[in-house]
């Protein structure tokens, strides 16, 4: 009789546990769905921000419509003094990639060589605001800042990237 009573007690506890688990699941599922929707909304907003922050990037423009202009002169630029207190400089040759289908290209692109000194001045001012260590560790950040400043200067995003074809730091 004791074994039978224990079996009935265990069966009752299993049923109660199953019922409570079902109630708990029914109560949690709607809030989990709402949380998933919130996460999807935030993720899509972040994705839009990452993709639309700087207009078109060179990766999104087909190679057939990119024209590259190499600045003719090598530039020697002094860096901002770093922690070591020594003078450092860079010798670099820069190039600009432009989207030939962009409206700004029609205004500035064909005569970009006449603006070379203004572009070199902008590159000089951006690079000289970095220390040797900052430039060495993250050249891409320097190129991105130059790109942003050139787009602001020309009031157009026809310039899709700025590159350094040769860089010598000391």
Automatic annotation (TrEMBL):
Main location class: membrane
UniProt subcellular location: Cell membrane
Keyword terms of this UniProt record: Cell membrane, Cell projection, Chemotaxis, Cilium, Flagellar rotation, Flagellum, Membrane, Transmembrane, Transmembrane helix
Membrane topology: Single-pass membrane protein
Pfam families per record: FliL
InterPro entries cross-referenced by the UniProt entry: FliL
Function text: Controls the rotational direction of flagella during chemotaxis.
Similarity comment: Belongs to the FliL family.
Protein name, entry field: Flagellar protein FliL
Biological source species: Maccoyibacter intestinihominis
Lineage of source species: Bacteria, Bacillati, Bacillota, Clostridia, Lachnospirales
């Amino acid at each position: 009789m004791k074994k039978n009573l224990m079996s009935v007690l265990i069966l009752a506890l299993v049923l109660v546990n199953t019922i409570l688990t079902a109630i708990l699941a029914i109560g949690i599922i709607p809030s989990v769905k709402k949380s998933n929707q919130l996460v999807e909304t935030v993720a899509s907003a972040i994705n839009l921000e990452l993709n639309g922050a700087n207009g078109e990037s060179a990766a999104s423009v087909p190679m057939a419509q990119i024209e590259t202009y190499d600045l003719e002169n090598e530039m020697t630029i002094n860096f901002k003094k770093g922690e070591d207190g020594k003078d450092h400089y860079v010798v670099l040759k820069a190039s600009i990639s432009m989207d030939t289908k962009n409206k700004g290209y029609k205004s500035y692109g064909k005569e970009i060589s006449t603006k070379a000194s203004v572009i070199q001045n902008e590159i000089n001012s951006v690079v000289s605001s970095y220390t040797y260590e900052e430039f060495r560790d993250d050249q891409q950040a320097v190129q991105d800042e130059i790109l942003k400043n050139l787009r602001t200067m020309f009031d157009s995003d026809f310039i899709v990237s700025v590159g350094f074809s040769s860089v010598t730091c000391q």
